[in-house]
């Protein structure tokens, strides 16, 4: 399948929900060190659109890439995988 039209789907944890209809999602990935070949955790934060304000900090969510919704928001929350306790 070609790359065009394929949207990235990432799994991450909600860090902040202080904005209206927006959340900050922290995505963790493992990166191998170039010299020592040891795997290191690398984190990146993405702003995502949460239409109904359902997400809370600590929730594990799946975010999907979409058209730019604002200057920083290019992802939407597609589903809540696990609720925070």
Automatic annotation (TrEMBL):
<dbReference type="Pfam" id="PF00366">
    <property type="entry name" value="Ribosomal_S17"/>
</dbReference>
<keyword id="KW-0687">Ribonucleoprotein</keyword>
<dbReference type="InterPro" id="IPR019979">
    <property type="entry name" value="Ribosomal_uS17_CS"/>
</dbReference>
<protein>
    <recommendedName>
        <fullName>Small ribosomal subunit protein uS17</fullName>
    </recommendedName>
</protein>
<comment type="subunit">
    <text>Part of the 30S ribosomal subunit.</text>
</comment>
<keyword id="KW-0699">rRNA-binding</keyword>
<dbReference type="InterPro" id="IPR012340">
    <property type="entry name" value="NA-bd_OB-fold"/>
</dbReference>
<keyword id="KW-0689">Ribosomal protein</keyword>
<dbReference type="GO" id="GO:0003735">
    <property type="term" value="F:structural constituent of ribosome"/>
</dbReference>
<comment type="similarity">
    <text>Belongs to the universal ribosomal protein uS17 family.</text>
</comment>
<dbReference type="GO" id="GO:0019843">
    <property type="term" value="F:rRNA binding"/>
</dbReference>
<dbReference type="GO" id="GO:0022627">
    <property type="term" value="C:cytosolic small ribosomal subunit"/>
</dbReference>
<dbReference type="InterPro" id="IPR000266">
    <property type="entry name" value="Ribosomal_uS17"/>
</dbReference>
<comment type="function">
    <text>One of the primary rRNA binding proteins, it binds specifically to the 5'-end of 16S ribosomal RNA.</text>
</comment>
<dbReference type="GO" id="GO:0006412">
    <property type="term" value="P:translation"/>
</dbReference>
<dbReference type="InterPro" id="IPR019984">
    <property type="entry name" value="Ribosomal_uS17_bact/chlr"/>
</dbReference>
<keyword id="KW-0694">RNA-binding</keyword>
